[in-house]
Structure prediction request, 1872 residues.
Amino acid sequence: MDFKMDWQRQDRIGLPEAIHAQSKSPEQIAAVLSEARALGVAVLVTRLDPEKHRALGPECVDTLDYDPLSRTAILAGSGAPQALDLDVAIVTGGLADMPTAREAARTLAFSGVTVTEYPDIGVAGLWRLMERIEDIRSHDVVIAVAGMEGAIFSVLGGLIAAPLIAVPAPVGDGVAEGGHAALTSALASCASGILSVNIGNGFGAAHAAMRMARLKRPAGCDRYLNRDSYCLRG
Amino acid sequence: MDFKMDWQRQDRIGLPEAIHAQSKSPEQIAAVLSEARALGVAVLVTRLDPEKHRALGPECVDTLDYDPLSRTAILAGSGAPQALDLDVAIVTGGLADMPTAREAARTLAFSGVTVTEYPDIGVAGLWRLMERIEDIRSHDVVIAVAGMEGAIFSVLGGLIAAPLIAVPAPVGDGVAEGGHAALTSALASCASGILSVNIGNGFGAAHAAMRMARLKRPAGCDRYLNRDSYCLRG
Amino acid sequence: MDFKMDWQRQDRIGLPEAIHAQSKSPEQIAAVLSEARALGVAVLVTRLDPEKHRALGPECVDTLDYDPLSRTAILAGSGAPQALDLDVAIVTGGLADMPTAREAARTLAFSGVTVTEYPDIGVAGLWRLMERIEDIRSHDVVIAVAGMEGAIFSVLGGLIAAPLIAVPAPVGDGVAEGGHAALTSALASCASGILSVNIGNGFGAAHAAMRMARLKRPAGCDRYLNRDSYCLRG
Amino acid sequence: MDFKMDWQRQDRIGLPEAIHAQSKSPEQIAAVLSEARALGVAVLVTRLDPEKHRALGPECVDTLDYDPLSRTAILAGSGAPQALDLDVAIVTGGLADMPTAREAARTLAFSGVTVTEYPDIGVAGLWRLMERIEDIRSHDVVIAVAGMEGAIFSVLGGLIAAPLIAVPAPVGDGVAEGGHAALTSALASCASGILSVNIGNGFGAAHAAMRMARLKRPAGCDRYLNRDSYCLRG
Amino acid sequence: MDFKMDWQRQDRIGLPEAIHAQSKSPEQIAAVLSEARALGVAVLVTRLDPEKHRALGPECVDTLDYDPLSRTAILAGSGAPQALDLDVAIVTGGLADMPTAREAARTLAFSGVTVTEYPDIGVAGLWRLMERIEDIRSHDVVIAVAGMEGAIFSVLGGLIAAPLIAVPAPVGDGVAEGGHAALTSALASCASGILSVNIGNGFGAAHAAMRMARLKRPAGCDRYLNRDSYCLRG
Amino acid sequence: MDFKMDWQRQDRIGLPEAIHAQSKSPEQIAAVLSEARALGVAVLVTRLDPEKHRALGPECVDTLDYDPLSRTAILAGSGAPQALDLDVAIVTGGLADMPTAREAARTLAFSGVTVTEYPDIGVAGLWRLMERIEDIRSHDVVIAVAGMEGAIFSVLGGLIAAPLIAVPAPVGDGVAEGGHAALTSALASCASGILSVNIGNGFGAAHAAMRMARLKRPAGCDRYLNRDSYCLRG
Amino acid sequence: MDFKMDWQRQDRIGLPEAIHAQSKSPEQIAAVLSEARALGVAVLVTRLDPEKHRALGPECVDTLDYDPLSRTAILAGSGAPQALDLDVAIVTGGLADMPTAREAARTLAFSGVTVTEYPDIGVAGLWRLMERIEDIRSHDVVIAVAGMEGAIFSVLGGLIAAPLIAVPAPVGDGVAEGGHAALTSALASCASGILSVNIGNGFGAAHAAMRMARLKRPAGCDRYLNRDSYCLRG
Amino acid sequence: MDFKMDWQRQDRIGLPEAIHAQSKSPEQIAAVLSEARALGVAVLVTRLDPEKHRALGPECVDTLDYDPLSRTAILAGSGAPQALDLDVAIVTGGLADMPTAREAARTLAFSGVTVTEYPDIGVAGLWRLMERIEDIRSHDVVIAVAGMEGAIFSVLGGLIAAPLIAVPAPVGDGVAEGGHAALTSALASCASGILSVNIGNGFGAAHAAMRMARLKRPAGCDRYLNRDSYCLRG
Prediction:
């Protein structure tokens, strides 16, 4: 094959390798999944369109937990699932942000992170946010997903103390087409200490949150020599 | 001279002609002001830098009410000043937005509009806005001036019923340089019915508000045949 | 469901909540409409493509007044329809601007605003505008919709005294692709006091006009405590 | 020297070579002018800032007809001046467009073209244009110079039959900064058959007009074999 | 109907009205054509895709001269065809530029202009241009159509004396996508006096050339009072 | 004054308020500092140019710890300094990135965070990074500052497990002018879980890191009721 | 036909003419191939989509060596194939870069260049590059193909001495859409002496490498008078 | 010091380390030069403005060969100068391109490469190029420097067989400001096998050419183990 999975990434930097399905053929994806099944390794597949999912063949499809909204599939591993000690809130501005938010949620859940979703909290109806702000504040990390003008990033940034990861969603017309307006708002926010990932990159936001889980680990655990030592509970 | 003042604009569309100083020499500006003094016409000068103001010569300078922050100068007319029946709130996100906000305020005041300023109400400290929101709601029209990510436009848009004019301020670093991020946020807002003018255009926002004053006039007054008929008081 | 209608918006800021169909599935839209029918609430649906309209199912479709040009559907409420005291002119530059203009017209009509359309008045044939300018001047508010270079915004701005809302239409080739040239012309106009909304945002222009209706209300009516108090007639 | 004047251009394509001063040192410019004086060739210098003009030295300066507004200098030749059979109107939107317009006017005058200027005819006051439109129509070619949103290009394009060359001026704030909005309007105009040159390129517009003079020449004169044959009068 | 043909444009500015089919339905186009047939007026239709052409119905299709490459259709008028005294060369850089070039050619031919095409003369093989340069020089006006980097505009501009209209073609990958690179090259050319129209605007280039035909008319013919007086031969 | 310090921010979200000097006059800055001195509050001033620093007056200057490279000034408070339990590495690609990096370092040090700088580790000489990678890995959080193409973000992202905050520096010529290329590289990185702030925003990166310190606090400490409760040591 | 093959290019500059299929119809392509077969000339076809390949007709298809990944087809010539003395490495960042890389590889192989592919060497897993770097160093020229942020260009540039041609691949989401981020990284690299071609231009990169083969030729061979003299081995 | 010279780069990849003066203080530059003098190493300094050059102090200045046009300084080493076996032509479009071209020339000369300059060969006067083309063809590598529309890159690319490195110069007004138009033309050229570096990057173009010198070395010399082995002559 013309590519190699980086199965060592989990051990090297604590983030499991995943399959980005967009540029791969059904045959290539099925082959990697088959290899993973043989190894007993759990695998996350992202950007897997429904048609490509179907094209993997019934045998392969049967082994996958597929979610069409986020276009993610999960192959369970043979061992006990991972359970990273982290509690993440995912706040979305509107319904159109759900595919991106769900990609983040599924990526986190794949690694055993606790996820709570706070959907449809746009600032145009500020009361929606205010009703939930105390709950949102109680999590370790907050991921906010919004398209259009992304004003929620700044409002949240001024109200919570936790790390805040802004994920611009590819949602908007005219000047906001493609999510660029939301990205700009995340980067230029008047609220300080907001972090951003690329437009639509729920997967990246999840991995960024997972990097922060290291800060909660017991002091003696400071290298990723092998998978077992990675602060797993479970 | 290579240009002519449109002294008829007041009668034609209810908006007084003004002098945009940026592209005019001190000699040209002084000549127009001299002509206006002779006619007894009140004149507003915008984008008048302090150096250019000084270069108008002491005689001319003495007749002007000059404000360096907004770079505006006002020449009083010989008759009673105009007093347009309109009550406008001007909300600013931060100190850097003041030059733009003050240009709007001075333009409105020049035509006798009642103006109340609500400075430094950025959404990063939402309590600042919440403390004043009832007061802001009480005005006929709200002009909001903000640079950086301009999140305040959306928050305000969801809280007030009045016409809301967003003025992006040329304030911001990196991706927000020049005020483009704030402009995009104004246009792409998830709160509906927000209107926008060009970056830094406090003058234009003021004139847009003044157009709305027509809606408050008694029913019989529907054309601008001459200046006196323009719903003036005082 | 992952989203909640902001049924209180009408009471809070005088603008009825609407359903932006683009990011919602037929099932989600049908569910909200069913809820609205049960409540007897009138609802406007925007950006509803013909296919999605059909996919709502015959039962739902029968209750809707659907217009494919503007991609809007209206569900009538159980009470007397709203009748906001406002008289709006909608001027369009060319035939390609009609979908955007009609979205504005239908949004206004939904709230009982009087609307007059002035179609196909491009400045390339200035006589078309000049023939109608007296009529256009007679309205409370003027909404102008134009794509390509949007020159009509400036020409109108110099001829009328009413509030002028420019709606750039997503019409144009090459450098004007997507309506960005028309937007820029609206914002950079040499005629002062022109206001702009996002490209193609007829709905937003209508809501902006409706905010101005407040200026015509009797003096004692200054808050939106409940729906009945909202300056309704009829 | 590291560059060579293309003295043959006049003979080859009918357009006299000129000195673009921006990227040349005073010493280099003075040397070319000295060479031209020796040859008795008339020369036009463009983009010559006042400081650079002064730096040419008194001897050189004395031989030049310098205009600081357009930043052009003209060295007269030893023979009879050229007199191209062409009658051009130059229309400007506002005072800030004058440097660009004057560069075009001086370039045309240098080759003996008849030029009439129509200054300060912005569409925000349409009556200014309407008062002069019959006069403007009477010329062979019309050059229109405008910054900001450049709406005048479309209005003129619909009113005149002559070739219309739009010159976007580097005038405007915010979204119109640098003249890009005016350029876009020229290219995307709804009036057909409008031609454009680069922002601020008055020199190029003049040369484009001069190319059209060929169409007026007697039929037998169809090549530029040498300077004398170039349809000169005088 | 929501639009009106500007049948007076021919008389007003010498350019016949045309139907831009892109934003019109087959029904609307067929109706205008039917009206034109009744009046005996010749009509040019542009941007008419093959499917839309077919959708006009067999009766309408039979009356049209349709060219799928340029997506233009011509309805002959009842009188003698127009024959404008103008001789135009159309030079193209490559095969992909043909649709744009042919739109210009058909627009010119519709008004009786003499057109000669010089296809596939890209500068990467300079000999192709050099073989034809003498022929190209012999025309009244040269229209050059090129995508990608548009280098041919500058090369031609330095070799010919005639008016040169650059038409950027929407051809190119990566940084040249959509024809923007070619447009920029046309505007920024180091050869002076080159004129440009919008990307892909063969129709506009043709009309611009037709405006120049006025310069060739006998001196007494200086207004477009009616169609017959428009310098027609034939 | 037209602005109010948000002295409650520390208690609300754990991030001390700071003075962004860019849009404030020396008089305004001196007044706030005077107020802070009276309250005994420590204050960080950012974007304070040397000239503006001098203009604060000798009395004010004497109380400040000023660093011209980062353009930051620190006013010590009356109580014991804060000492947040966090250990941050700051990696820079080259010397030009130092102003941005030092702003981050001084912002962190102001709140008692332990900071280690790893200067001049560009990927063009990969050995520089490889020599230090083990040390870099040992920190809680890594802030990487780079201009030009920002390749170091991706290389670091694949080598370390800690949270990685990319700060694009406003460094680069041509296509990389202003730091936009580095920003794009941070957002589009093929290494997953990288977070970004705006160009040149060392202050924001520091605050983002400080938000992560919450993850290291003892479990019972979950709200910022007052300053003392904020997980301080020392 | 409206275009002519530049069969002389091989002799003029050593690069064989090729057919860029994108803007040509199947009929046009088949005609050129038929002409080439008659002449016994080998031809490379690029950007030939599978559908267009099929549309060439079975007779033509049978004579072609077609590769759908790179969308290239090769028609063998009648003589001995060319064998240019050059040894090129092609490094790719990920699987999505393969179509571009393979276009380069096939273009090189068509001229007899020795090609070695190093697939899937992204810098997120630096060990993949480090394992192969000694091999990569051994080639005459290195072509690197990468999308997204293109960090591999800089890393490679600091590790190898050979000419390095960066080919940005049209791969990436959000801010990296279309390959522009990778292009910018190639141009702005902190590693010196890196060269770039347009996004996705594997063909151009191959031809650029082939130009370098001239440097390896024996000293006496310095012009391309005819094909045989072109340093062929065979 | 906060940075370290990469003195090993010469041995590692054959390109000598240089000092990019832009982001360094005079003190830092003087210190590195002092270190280099002590080691007897020759050093090239780029982007050294005349003021910064003077600020190095008389002692340092006396040891440097400084050229203000290219803003480069050269410190001679103690050994015999390098003499790389390579013969490069540098072609420039106009006088404004000289600073960039000279930076390339001085960088090449520093490493002993033979350089021939062909100044002021713009395509607007094609004869200038045609007069020199045979000479230009005789060099190993051609570097072309051009601003504005950069048409010369394509013309040259079709005429020469040697490797062609396009260097866009930061020269141009309006749409060509900053050199972006020339860059786009280089990348999008219809002539195949053209390579590009960043705008104004004469240094990078020179290093790219120097990488090609490796192709001329005797076969046995394939690694840069130490400086002596680097194919030096003299």
Chain H is about 35% helix and 15% strand.
